[in-house]
Specification:
The chain has 336 residues and is α/β, with parallel strands linked by helices. The chain folds into two domains: 2-167, Aldehyde Dehydrogenase, Chain A, domain 1; 169-310, 3-Layer(aba) Sandwich (Aldehyde Dehydrogenase, Chain A, domain 2), CATH 3.40.309. Helix content is 42%, strand content 16%. It is built from 13 helices and twelve strands. Strands 8-9-10-7-6-11-12 form a seven-stranded mixed beta sheet. The longest helix is centred in the first third of the chain and has 16 residues, at 2-17. The two termini are 18 Å apart.
């Protein structure tokens, strides 16, 4: 285990210093228009600073009774944001598992690059990790997909131990006491990766009487460039047209629509909101919708009765122990 931690720390240093990473970032943007350079660079930063830091790795691992897991794990990666499957891979690597990985066609090159770097540090990876088109001969499965694909996964992997992840979204709770700086950080929570990640804020809870127009200047400061992104704006125009045809009230600037809507999930270019006035009622609502919520962003994270609550600007910087869907992946592997 100590050797694996050293290997991961070495990987982090290599990724943070390699000029080849810059080339891969540019290549990813050419292959997938949603993977703009600044977002791919942020994904690399989140991995190197939060997941491959020696102190954080040791802090994360000390709570487990670690033992070699001589099992083969089938991993199915999603392709919604860059390198989204890395944490599952990391858990399998520290547990000593063999892996068969089905990559998403939307995000295959970046992970293969990272895998190549780790293999150069730890040659045993070559014998322990296999990239496959279809999973077979595995002992357990970790798969991430939409609610629709999850139904298929439930059936297909019915006879195996598994972690299957469905659609989730994140929310932000505002009190009206936020500073301009905090609202600017909230913009990262909303717009990073174009809102495709489960940790992206898709719904706001704002106090009764809150002036929502004050969000636009804070959001425009860092994300006005979205107005020039063709794929994003195609979705924005389509969704705004639907709102206008349905005569649905909404607020809008050049790249964002604010819509009063009880749904936690929202369309691209749209941010839903609801008003709140009673903290107990809101906390009860959060508990009732816990399976739909990945994390909660707020000024006072400790105030809300949820599993994962973070400060503004931290939604896209998950710690090693911030497991998707709240399921402890490493504990699952160690129990096999």
């Amino acid at each position: 285990m100590e050797e694996r931690v050293r290997n991961l720390v070495a990987l982090g240093k290599r990724l943070s210093q390699s000029e080849e990473v810059i080339e891969k970032i540019a290549t990813a943007a050419n292959r997938n228009p949603w993977f703009v350079p600044r977002f791919v660079a942020s994904a690399f930063d989140a991995i190197t600073k939060e997941m491959l830091d020696e102190r954080k790795l040791n802090e994360w691992l000390k709570k487990y009774e670690l033992k070699p897991v001589s099992k083969t794990i089938g991993l199915i990666f999603a392709g919604n944001i860059p390198l989204v499957g890395f944490h599952d891979f990391l858990c399998c690597y520290v547990a000593g598992c063999n892996m068969k990985i089905k990559l998403s066609s939307k995000d295959d090159d970046l992970f293969l690059f990272v895998l190549k770097q780790l293999t150069q540090i730890d040659p045993t990876v070559k014998d322990r990790v296999e990239i496959v088109e279809k999973l077979k001969d595995y002992d357990a499965v970790i798969a991430t997909g939409s609610d629709n694909t999850n139904r298929y996964f439930e059936y297909y992997f019915r006879n195996h131990p598994k972690i299957l992840r469905k659609n989730r979204n994140s929310i932000a709770i505002l009190t009206g006491e936020e500073t301009d700086s905090e609202l600017e950080k909230l913009a990262d929570d909303v717009f990073m990766y174009f809102g495709f990640g489960c940790r992206n804020v898709s719904k706001l809870y704002v106090p009764t009487g809150y002036d929502l127009t004050q969000l636009f200047p804070a959001f425009e400061k860092s994300y006005k460039w979205l107005h020039n992104h063709n794929k994003f704006m195609n979705n924005y125009d389509y969704n705004r047209t639907l709102l206008m045809l349905n005569k649905a009230p909404h607020l809008a600037n050049e790249f964002l629509m604010l819509v009063e809507n009880p749904s936690i999930a929202s369309s691209i270019g749209t941010l839903n909101y609801s008003f709140w006035h009673d903290e107990k009622v809101l906390n009860s609502h959060l508990q009732q919708n816990a399976e739909k919520i990945q994390c909660v962003v707020s000024k006072q994270p400790e105030r809300w009765n949820v599993n994962s609550s973070v400060a503004f600007g931290e939604a896209q910087q998950p710690q090693l122990w911030d497991y998707a869907d709240g399921t402890d992946t490493l504990e699952f592997l160690l129990s096999l």
